[in-house]
Amino acid sequence: MLRPFLLYLSEKQTPKKILTGHALGRRMAARFIAGEELEDALNVVRRLNAEGFMVTLDLLGESVQEAAEAEAACQAYVHLLDRLAVEGLNSHVSVKLTQLGLAIDEGLACRHLNAICECAVKYHNFVRVDMEGSAFTEATLRVFRTASVPRDVAGIVIQSYLYRSDKDVEELLRCGACIRLVKGAYDEPREIAYRHKRDVDRSFSRLMAMMLSSGIYHAIATHDERLIAAAQEYARAHGIPPERYEFQLLYGIRRDLQRDLLRQGERVRLYVPYGRQWYAYFMRRLAERPANVLFLLRNLFRE
């Protein structure tokens, strides 16, 4: 019952104002968010790189309503890629198309994505297009397919809880796309998404096998140790070396697992969000694993 309630709250303005306007809320979010400013995020990337982790940075924000906001987000990502290159940091960037204007006009989002990817080409970097709620799934895939973007510079995310994902993965593999596979973090209706964990996990395992067998470099994004072990076993059984894929995990979650995968010789990239628009992301992280609520509260008041 707690998960749908937290997802419901993630879209509401009143709790957002309360939590983001209070020092206690920012302190709670710091577990999962690198900070509100670019310099905060770059400091985290430096530290994680020194520990052996690769990174992908996400400037938090989504569903902008004004073209000027979308333009500002685009320029912020271009500046971010500039800074990563100047400092020689090992970090990709992850973008949400609604932050680039998808809800306003697909062409606007496509132009902004092209501009960010052109900068990534210049620096030999990489841009990952995040997947959002199902209302934007088809449009996100359409913009990704039509953008003038080399396949070694941009990739996309697929959510295993959607029924449509088998077909989407097949089509993306045919065009050589690099995929990040996730379970999915939005509250989707049963008409389009699996509702039970076992079904989501079966879908994840099936899609993971399709991706690893494709010969394309992909990202397996999960904190589920059983699914991670299944991916490792599949890779070994089919002679797929660790250099042909990577595991992605969220900043601040299961740090023990992150370090353990590094010790095993796996390639590990951490998804590091930053920025002032952290509320919705923070609530979805709590909803994914409601036990995090108790964990945060215990550590918050432990003195």
Would you write up a description of this structure?
By secondary structure, the chain is an alpha/beta fold. It has a single domain, classed as TIM Barrel (Alpha-Beta Barrel). The chain contains 13 helices and 8 strands. An 8-stranded parallel barrel has the order 1-2-3-4-5-6-7-8, surrounded by 7 helices. Strand 6, helix 10 and strand 7 (245-250) form a beta-alpha-beta unit. Helix 5 runs parallel beside helix 6, helix 6 packs across helix 7 (137-146) and helix 9 (197-212) runs parallel beside helix 10. 40% of the residues are buried.
Question: What's a quick, concise take on this entry?
Answer:
The chain has 303 residues and is α/β, with parallel strands linked by helices. It is built from 13 helices and 8 strands. Strand 2, helix 6 (106-123) and strand 3 (127-129) form a beta-alpha-beta unit.
Any chance you could write out the topology, listing elements then pairs?
Blueprint: H1 2-9, H2 13-20, H3 23-29, H4 38-51, E1 54-59, H5 67-87, E2 91-95, H6 106-123, E3 127-129, H7 137-146, E4 154-159, H8 165-174, E5 178-182, H9 197-212, E6 218-221, H10 225-237, E7 245-250, H11 255-263, E8 268-274, H12 279-288, H13 291-300
Parallel strand pairs: 1-2, 1-8, 2-3, 3-4, 4-5, 5-6, 6-7, 7-8
Helix pairs in contact: 1-12, 5-6, 6-7, 8-9, 9-10
Largest sheet: 8 strands, parallel, barrel
- Helix-strand category: alpha/beta
Question: What is the CATH topology descriptor?
Answer: TIM Barrel
Terminal Cα separation, in Å? 31 Å
- Which runs of at least 5 residues are low in confidence (pLDDT < 50)? none
Which radius of gyration do the C-alpha atoms yield? 18 Å
Tell me which CATH architecture applies here. Alpha-Beta Barrel
CATH class: Alpha Beta
The backbone outline, from C-alpha atoms, is globular
Portion of residues in beta strands equals 5-15%
Strand order of the largest sheet: 1-2-3-4-5-6-7-8
- How many helices in DSSP terms? 13
Helix content percent band: 40-55%
Q: What is the total number of structural domains? A: 1
Based on DSSP secondary structure assignment, what is the total number of beta strands?
Answer: 8
Order of helices and strands: HHHHEHEHEHEHEHEHEHEHH
